[in-house]
């Protein structure tokens, strides 16, 4: 292992990004080693196909490599930024395969991510929540609530589309989504208390 | 707005956070969000839950070959950029006879003096200047903000698109066959009479899609793509298999 790679491994994600912006391949490799696994799992979960997930990850990470300087730390953690890029690419791929809907833009994520800097502390703490705890929060939801959330987040479906798929009124889907997401948020907040 | 109306806004905030708001409602909600502190707070509060959702996905190890492909593309980028920088440096030196002589004065190669080296270098630079970039005769220069140029699949089955936004553009290919080992795709732009390499080399994915970015579109009249040895080249070594004229 090179000295530079060792140095890069000791850096926090946010410190690593300027190295990537400077086109440092070793910093990028460290970045991939940290987040490639969860990113690949997310792409696979959305696309349900190994080859499509690999292509999605390759495109997403290359776009990050070529635009590393665009990361803005006031908008959230590197991990959530990366995963939102992967999710958007995967949903785009899903939609283009199904021949529907225009491409997702990053604008909506930017609004979601934009928040005061002091909240990043909570973000950092949240990162260390184990996957089991997050899965636990999701699994404790009633099936109809988790299904709405999963169809929206992992399927890229709108509320109206979900209502049609589940054959329930639109208002029911809205209510289930809100209750479900607020419960997950509440569980996570308890875990941090 | 009464409390019931606002409840429906909060439901929209949840859908917005999950990316599930119906397309027709997005702009309206964004406009509302600008002035509504309550919805802004709701979104801020929900954001960690949305960000945590990917963590709930069952862990899956990516195949090592994925990392190899990714890093090969990254190293190809770095190598191409280094080559581009070296070529730029050489061009700058060639632009100034004094600069070239000064550079050669600084060389200490074995027992050779700089004078014969200078003679050789000048000859090389003249020859390279003559053949290096003398390709094409386009007029270049297309203005405008967002614009797409597209060519339908030809005999080789490749579909090409150049999507320009501002001064940057993305070259998108579809239907590209997998490359032989040691080969990459290299894009070229024609500006006036000069053909310049695009530093970001690229390779097709499993589906035969490939893309690269052109950082400076000023004066570009034609975009071409060739297959080149890994690391790229300064001038095309073969006829382009894709040519997209950018007619304004």
Radius of gyration of chain B: 26 Å
Low-confidence stretches of chain B: 97-101, 103-144
Radius of gyration of chain A using CA atoms only: 18 Å
Q: Name the strands of the widest sheet of chain B in spatial order.
A: 1-2-3-6
Query: Roughly what is the average pLDDT of chain B, rounded to an integer?
Result: 77
Helix content of chain B: 40-55%
Total strand segments of chain B: 8
Separation, N- and C-terminal Cα atoms of chain A: 39 Å
Biggest interface goes to: A-B, 67 and 56 residues
Oligomeric state of the chains present here = heterodimer
Number of helices of chain A: 11
Brief characterization of the structure:
The complex is a heterodimer of chains A (193) and B (248). Chain A has 193 residues and is an all-alpha fold. Chain A is built from eleven helices and no strands.
Written account of the structure:
The complex is a heterodimer of chains A (193) and B (248). With 193 residues, chain A is mainly alpha-helical. In chain A, 75% of the residues lie in helices and 0% in strands. Chain A is built from eleven helices and no strands. In chain A, helix 2 packs across helix 3 and helix 3 (25-47) packs antiparallel against helix 4. The longest helix of chain A is centred in the N-terminal third of the chain and has 23 residues, at 25-47. The two termini of chain B are 49 Å apart. The radius of gyration of chain B is 26 Å and the shape is elongated. In chain B, the strands form two sheets. A four-stranded antiparallel β-sheet of chain B has the order 1-2-3-6, with no helix packed on it. Chain B has a four-stranded antiparallel β-sheet with strand order 5-4-7-8, with no helix packed on it. The interface between A and B is large, with 67 and 56 residues.
């Amino acid at each position: 292992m090179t000295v530079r790679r060792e140095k890069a491994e000791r850096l926090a994600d946010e410190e690593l990004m300027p190295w990537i912006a400077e086109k440092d391949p070793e910093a990028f490799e460290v970045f991939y080693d940290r987040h490639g696994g969860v990113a690949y799992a997310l792409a696979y979960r959305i696309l349900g196909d190994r080859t499509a997930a690999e292509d999605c990850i390759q495109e997403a990470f290359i776009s990050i490599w070529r635009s590393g300087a665009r990361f803005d730390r006031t908008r959230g953690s590197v991990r959530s930024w990366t995963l939102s890029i992967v999710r958007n690419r995967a949903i785009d791929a899903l939609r283009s395969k199904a021949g529907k809907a225009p491409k997702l833009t990053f604008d909506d994520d930017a609004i979601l991510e934009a928040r005061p800097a002091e909240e990043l502390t909570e973000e950092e703490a949240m990162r260390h929540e184990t996957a089991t705890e997050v899965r636990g929060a999701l699994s404790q939801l009633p099936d109809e609530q988790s299904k709405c959330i999963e169809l929206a987040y992992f399927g890229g479906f709108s509320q109206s589309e979900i209502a049609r798929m589940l054959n329930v009124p639109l208002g029911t889907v809205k209510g289930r989504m809100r209750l479900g997401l607020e419960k997950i948020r509440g569980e996570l907040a308890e875990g941090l208390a | 707005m009464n409390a019931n109306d606002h409840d429906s806004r909060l439901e929209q905030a949840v859908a917005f956070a999950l990316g599930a708001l119906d397309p027709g409602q997005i702009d309206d909600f964004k406009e509302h969000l600008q002035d509504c502190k309550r919805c802004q707070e709701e979104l801020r509060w929900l954001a960690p839950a949305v960000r945590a959702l990917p963590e709930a996905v069952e862990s899956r190890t990516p195949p090592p070959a994925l990392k190899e492909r990714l890093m090969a593309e990254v190293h190809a980028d770095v190598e191409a950029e280094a080559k581009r920088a070296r070529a730029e440096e050489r061009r700058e030196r060639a632009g100034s006879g004094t600069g070239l002589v000064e550079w050669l004065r600084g060389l200490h190669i074995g027992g050779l003096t700089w004078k014969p080296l200078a003679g050789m270098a000048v000859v090389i630079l003249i020859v390279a200047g003559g053949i290096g970039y003398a390709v094409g005769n386009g007029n270049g220069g297309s203005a405008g903000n967002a614009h797409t140029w597209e060519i339908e699949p030809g005999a080789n089955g490749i579909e090409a698109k150049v999507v320009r936004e501002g001064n940057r553009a993305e070259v998108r290919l579809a239907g590209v066959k997998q490359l032989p080992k040691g080969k990459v795709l290299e894009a070229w732009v024609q500006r006036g009479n000069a053909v310049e390499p695009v530093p970001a080399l690229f390779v097709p994915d499993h589906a035969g899609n490939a893309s690269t970015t052109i950082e400076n579109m000023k004066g570009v009249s034609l975009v071409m793509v060739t297959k080149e040895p890994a690391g790229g080249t300064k001038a095309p070594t073969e006829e382009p298999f894709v040519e997209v004229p950018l007619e304004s």
